[in-house]
């Protein structure tokens, strides 16, 4: 398929569907080779007479169509370009369709597919049309009744959405199950699962005293690994009741783990289907971060039950309506779990750990997207393939846009806005604008005469805004004025439009504090209140605020808690950053000050890579690092964040032109110097943070301790300290949990190409070859190791455990190498390998291939040699004769 033939869908072309489908009945004759689906649709016309009824279908064999019981001849309907058109003559009728699909041949993992010996479905965004002919769009909502028939030996368990009405054995030896979902839903939330599973369950009583059953299904034998997931689910249910007053509306809520899954998980009504990586965990096979990721994803999918399912999207341009909001909710859930049982500064620092991780993700994944050829607003204006718009912008920046509304309205105001949103829209398919309007109804009460007009532009403008800060102190009047100015530059395709339209200002909540020269917080008067942190609402190009009673020239603490997804431009002395690093009471801004210090140092190093002698690291940085490392008041988890230098990728983003070799070299130089200069401190903290043999739990305190322990080992290895390797070997073989074991192994593999590291890798494989999720880690570790080349990856692809068809495996080896191994991939062989893999994957799974195709979106910003080679790779992909719509959209935008 080629770009010029692929239609572009525009947000402004939305038209309501002219029919209602109140009831849908589906019967499945399940079989891996060929599944027959009989559908019966009750249809009512909404619009004018004589409107054709158009249904979507893809890779289906149509067997029969009947209107009000009468079978139609081929002349009575149209079948063209994946659309089945019927010409009804009455205002209400029933349509019966029989069709076939082929699950075993479906490697795209969209629609009905086979994973292992089981059957699963994935319908978001447009997978339902691979199951049966249907108006496959989110604003068509129906009640589903589903009958599943299959061989009971191969498929003893038959699940679908809602409640199980009946089960029966059939005369032909098969069995059947009938499910009914009482809640009307769009087709993308349909699901079915068939196979043999183990189940772990727990009965709960909701806030409103309703009984419900929570169930986690997984492969037989893995039921020992679902305790944590079930615990997370129970806590998710409680949290949504307590924080948002939202109760479970089902009698049973099921989560099923699948080995082959394109994404993290899917929120199908009452029957969530998960990538097994976000379900299965025990102390021997899962790291602390895997435990936290499971908590986040279980929470995320559960929270969709209200934000996504009860209120859904009118069309796919509104995707961030459910995703941005639900990511915000899962972030808050995770933060609340980290801060549980803590108060005051300790709680704030625990929450900051989550905030730091989320902001790092945003900066690594979303900022580059917003600056590259795929830049789009959180509510895109157009697409060729909607699967390409499940992006960091829609999800992560979308969550930031929700978070800003929370920051502006406050917790109580936001809650009032959410209540209003459900009061207005429960049961409906709505738009992002509907959400903002509900929030605005609260904003107007709080701020008579104002509105959220400027705020709404966050939904229509792409690009990361830059906020310039100027501070002016007047000693005579003891006043300090703060001027904020915003710049919103053209990005992505906007740059091709001429004349360049000036982009209007956004509503930016900017949290600010001022410290005196001793590092003490200065109380600030603002809006009739006195506080250490004030929220400045920047709504124009430039605004100035004046603070009085400021005894001396202050040091500003900017964009506290990252109150808006912007880049701050400010001139700051090193000394100010060092003061903030020691004293800022906002733990996020404190971390940021340390990052900024390290980034400046790293950038200086990138500029001198060519020189003979690499410059020494500024002793004040080393001093700052040492103080933080030895600070008894900081939690171990927070310390791990503040003492980690920015990643190679973050640094690369800041070089201009982008120079991967320089970024890699500078990063390694800094970490070696930090390792050497503080070697005895890393060693003593390493020893003091050793785990005891008591029972493992993934709680924040002990996992924080483990993360700091592993960080110390990492710096000691970077320094080439004589004790480091023996410690890593001992930690690897002596570990009693996967976090410590991986810490030891990755220290070995990342820093020493030694017999010990090869031995440990072999030992690890022997030990874990039966556990696919652990073997994913084994592949990923090697893919990201410094000495790894294309040759290494190619030989790992020949390993019997490798398969391109399993998305987790492809991600762990190929994506890991292409996206995270800067040293290995930024070579001409690396780019060639990448292009080959995009083409190979595209023949199997376009969704996954299109994600890999985005690895070098920012090719045009690189140094000339890299740039030309990446461009050649993109062109080679584009010229391939059988490209999917997914990959074709990505490469054509990249080359524009
Ligand atoms: N809606 C899912 C989520 O974010 C993501 C997803 C999209 C999964 C498309 C599969 C396919 O929770
Ligand atoms: Zn989601």
Structural class: alpha+beta
The distinct ligands, each listed once, are: phenylalanine, zinc ion
State the oligomer. single chain
Question: How much strand?
Answer: 15-25%
Mean pLDDT figure: 97
Uncertain segments are: none
Helix content percent band: 40-55%
Radius of gyration: 28 Å
How many β-strand runs? 33
In DSSP terms (H or I, runs of 4 or more residues), the helix count works out at 26
**What gap, in angstroms, lies between the N and C termini?**
18 Å
Major pleated sheet: 8 strands, mixed
State the shape.
globular
The order of strands across the largest sheet is 6-5-9-3-2-12-15-14
Q: Any overview of this molecule?
A:
The protein is an alpha+beta fold. 41% of the residues lie in helices and 21% in strands. It is built from 26 helices and 33 strands. The strands form 9 sheets. The protein has an 8-stranded mixed sheet with strand order 6-5-9-3-2-12-15-14, with no helix packed on it. Strands 17-18-19-21-20 form a 5-stranded mixed sheet, covered by helices on one side. The longest helix is centred in the middle third of the chain and has 34 residues. InterPro entries: Aminopeptidase_N-like_N, Aminopeptidase_N-like_N_sf, PepN_Ig-like_sf, Peptidase_M1, Peptidase_M1_dom, Peptidase_M1_pepN, Peptidase_M1_pepN_C, Peptidase_M1_pepN_C_sf. It is an enzyme of class 3 (hydrolase). This is Aminopeptidase N. Keywords: Aminopeptidase, Hydrolase, Metal-binding, Metalloprotease, Protease, Zinc.
